[in-house]
Design brief:
There is one protein chain. The protein is mainly α. Helix content is about 85%, strand content about 0%. It has one domain: Up-down Bundle (de novo design (two linked rop proteins)), CATH 1.20.1440. The chain has 5 helices and no strands. The longest helix is centred in the last third of the chain and has 30 residues. It is elongated, with a radius of gyration of 15 Å.
């Protein structure tokens, strides 16, 4: 692997952690009802898994292992976007926050997709 300071690795680790923390904060403001509570359980897992799998990718033992972990990151980011879209939200401020989180999940999906493509071409 390349030097972490030059690769931007820590920036993406920090970004995925910020995403997970933002999701955790977001769900604390959601209306308390059974559907939201069940969806919250899923989004907590998927949003946290994005960063956790990225850390695992950076510790990969092989190129194949790295690529597989990055694909999991991409999958979990896509899943996070899905769960975010299912919440029952009527308040405008919360809806704006949800759209922001969906945007971040979309960007992370694209970033990890680009990493997968780059890994394939090496």
């Amino acid at each position: 692997m390349t030097n972490a300071k030059n690769s931007g690795r820590f920036d993406l680790e920090e970004r995925t952690q910020r995403f997970a923390k933002a999701v955790l904060e977001f769900i604390t403001y959601l209306p308390k009802n059974l559907p939201n509570e069940e969806i919250a359980k899923q989004i907590i897992r998927s949003a946290g898994s994005v960063g956790a799998n990225y850390i695992e990718a950076n510790e990969a033992l092989s190129k194949k292992d790295f690529a597989m972990r990055i694909k999991v990151c991409r999958k979990e980011a896509k899943e996070s976007k899905y769960w975010l879209s299912l919440f029952d939200i009527k308040e405008e401020t919360l809806e704006k926050k949800r759209q922001s989180l969906i945007g971040e999940a979309t960007e992370l999906t694209k970033i990890f997709g680009a990493i997968v493509e780059k890994t394939r071409s090496e």
